[in-house]
Design goal:
By secondary structure, the protein is of the alpha/beta class. It has helices at 18-28, 44-55, 77-89, 99-115, 122-143, 185-188, 200-209, 224-229, 232-239, and strands spanning 35-39, 59-66, 93-97, 148-149, 154-158, 164-168, 191-192, 245-249, 254-258, 280-286, 291-296, 302-312, 322-327, 335-343, 346-355, 363-368, 371-378.
């Protein structure tokens, strides 16, 4: 769904690559009934997901959510490509009107958070509230399908104790497990991720080999609202009134002006429009004062944060402090921290090294190597 970047043509193999052969074998040996709904966005990843499942002998039906009105590429071009794929595979294609739930769960949620000085993470919320749960419910009720597949680069491990563990995708450059941290066990146990053991190159090559129309389609960047409106700034400006204010140091010294705190994020250095003796970083968005607070790098780091709304995925809620690898942004490297439980739904993180992008509203996701343990939302700390 989303702001696109150019794709590069990848020459296909004459026969499936070893990775694709292994993926097909895993799908063929999957236990239980082989009937499934496939969430189709109209991109190459979901297209190949459907094609692989069909090739492995599954009964496939395509399912596309209509999320926004107007000309957004995610909901216009994507619908066309998804429908064309299903026609080429000779499988049913269903379009579910999800515009109202998307508006309530994502658009309104984002606006409320930005006004409050947070930088919300729409993708993980969308996965839980708009996509996976609703798609599974619709597929089972309307089509009798109890499983759902998507083109996410993530893996699942089914444990003997009944828990479904979530693992990073094999391709470290495409791993999307971070955005799936909030999915509950009831949903994870019904999912299939055929691309989890593939690289993006594998996907492009196989899609080209099969002649899929999306084989060279531009890459999705998970920014559907930005794509729909032209940019994230344009989306926010379309919904929020102008709220110009001051950019200040922690002591209140005014160093510049801003056109709305929603256009800034913690850790930001470029684009501040401030001339100062040394580079400044955004350290806090003060919604009450309508101020962007900045500091030089030596004063911009933080070594701790509180995380709430926790969802424990691959393990039960811990009772004692332990060391974890924490990812505080999708593209950030994991950092070591001590996680101390405050309750089943909240914890405190003490990082081994100071961090410069701990952003209230974003997700802190906990890993042990390739296994995603759980995650939650970074809280707004007062007085920081």
């Amino acid at each position: 769904m989303t702001a696109s970047s150019p794709s590069t043509f990848v020459a296909p193999f004459a026969t499936p690559s070893p990775a694709v052969v292994a993926a097909l074998e895993r799908l063929r040996s999957f236990p239980g009934e082989k009937a499934i709904a496939v969430g189709l966005s109209g991109g190459v990843d979901s297209s190949l997901t459907a094609a692989l499942l069909q090739a492995a002998g599954w009964r496939v039906e395509g399912l596309t959510l209509w999320l926004m009105s107007g000309k957004g590429a995610c909901c216009a071009e994507g619908l066309v490509d998804a429908a064309a794929l299903c026609e080429s595979l000779a499988v049913p294609h269903h379009v579910v009107d999800s515009r109202e739930v998307f508006k309530k769960e994502i658009v309104e949620f984002l606006l409320e958070n930005y006004v409050a000085g947070l930088t919300p993470l729409p993708c993980s919320r969308c996965n839980r509230a708009v996509k996976f749960g609703p798609m599974l419910a619709w597929a089972e009720k309307e089509r009798g399908l109890k499983r759902l597949a998507t083109g996410h680069y993530a893996r699942l491990r089914y444990c003997s104790n009944g828990r479904t563990q979530l693992l990073r995708g094999l391709d470290s450059h495409k791993d999307q497990s971070y955005f799936l941290y909030d999915l509950p066990q009831a949903i994870l146990s019904s999912l299939v991720f055929p691309l989890g053991e593939l690289t993006k190159i594998d996907t492009r090559q196989e899609a080209s080999r099969l002649g899929l129309r999306t084989a060279t389609k531009a890459e999705s960047q998970d920014l559907c609202l930005a794509d729909h409106h032209g940019s994230m700034k344009a989306f926010l400006d379309a919904y929020l009134p102008e709220r110009p204010g001051q950019i200040v140091l922690a002591d209140g010294t005014v160093v510049g002006k801003h056109d709305g705190i929603e256009h800034f994020t913690i850790g930001q250095r470029k684009g501040l429009g401030v001339a100062w003796s040394e580079p400044l970083h955004v350290v806090r968005l003060d919604a009450a004062m309508n101020q962007v607070v900045v500091a030089c790098r030596k004063d911009a780091g933080r070594s701790f944060c509180t995380v709430a709304a926790l969802n424990w995925v691959s393990i039960a809620a811990p009772l004692e402090a332990f060391e974890v690898e924490v990812q505080v942004r999708y593209r950030s490297a994991p950092e070591l921290a001590i996680l101390t439980p405050l309750s089943d739904s909240s914890c405190q993180l003490q990082f081994k090294e100071e961090q410069f992008s701990i952003t209230p509203g974003q997700a802190a996701v906990f890993y042990a190597g390739e296994v995603l343990l759980g995650g939650g939302l970074i809280q707004l700390e007062t007085g920081i």
